Amino acid sequence: MIDSTTRADDAVIVIVFLVRHAHAVDETPALPDEARHLSERGRHAARELGRRLRWHDCTPTAIWTSPLTRAVMTAELVAGTIEWSGPIESVRGLAPGGSAREVLAAIAAHDPSGSLVLVGHEPSLSGLGGALTLREDFPALRKAQAARIDGRELRWLFSYDAEAPTPPA
Question: Where does residue 88 rank: exposed (0-12), middle (13-18), buried (19+ CB within 10 A)?
């Protein structure tokens, strides 16, 4: 979770696509939260989100994901549809309860001419978005929804079932 004192370095100008994982099956006694996989609906939504991101110039130089199964599956499906052939890196800081400071430091260390896709969970993603944009009102992402951040500006939100990105409120 990111608190109000967590802020991104002022020099960060890299493009960041925040992606919330798609719909997953429910937790059961035999299936703990971290092992929950995407439902059929979630797999479809992740592929559709990837198609939409490809249409809107999502050409990452890196893809990072929470290590939880549903996030990894979302990252893999999005990567496949945007035709990403590089590695998908598991980043513990993107897991629920992970270190936002570590994620922000890694973003700041990334090549500023590049772009990142970060796949994770709420409320951590909107907290990370708030830290990157310095917005306290950064919107919570719905499942299979992406936000594009250019430098400190939230450019748009894009859901898997939308025809076009929507500007932020």
Answer: middle
pTM of the predicted protein model: 0.92
pLDDT digits (tens, 9 = 90+) for 122-165: 999 999 999 999 999 999 999 999 999 998 999 999 999 999 99
Q: Structural domain of residue 39, as residue ranges?
A: 15-26+33-159
DSSP string, 62-91: EEEE-SSHHHHHHHHHHHHHTT--S-EEE-
CATH number of the domain that residue 65 is part of: 3.40.50.1240
Is 84 domain-assigned?
A: yes
Q: Determine what percent of the chain falls in helix, strand and coil, rounding each to the nearest 5.
A: 35, 20, 45
pLDDT digits (tens, 9 = 90+) for 85-112: 999 999 999 999 999 999 999 999 999 8
The domain tally of the chain equals 1
Q: Please provide the size of the chain in residues.
A: 169
Check residue 168 and give its pLDDT. 87
Q: Is residue 62 part of a domain?
A: yes
Q: Angle at which helices 124-133 and 100-109 pack, to 10 degrees?
A: 50
